[in-house]
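Friendly challenge for the regulars: who can give me the structure tokens for this chain first? No prize, just bragging rights.
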Amino acid sequence: MRRQRCEGSGSLLGGNHPKIILKGSGGIKKMVEILAVCQIKCNFAAANCGVIPRTLCVTFNI
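First reply, four minutes later:
Bragging rights claimed.
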């Protein structure tokens, strides 16, 4: 079982699930910005991106 994450280097998303950012992020602006990057990474490397992070990316990218 691999941990599903939506990032390349790990620095942008804290090296973990986007959930942690949703929980401890500063504000909505930063959250949307990170998730926008997350969505791009998801679409770019769908193999490394699981269903949960991809859903979060799409849901919060408004």
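Residues 1-62 form one domain. The longest helix spans residues 28-44. Your move, everyone else.
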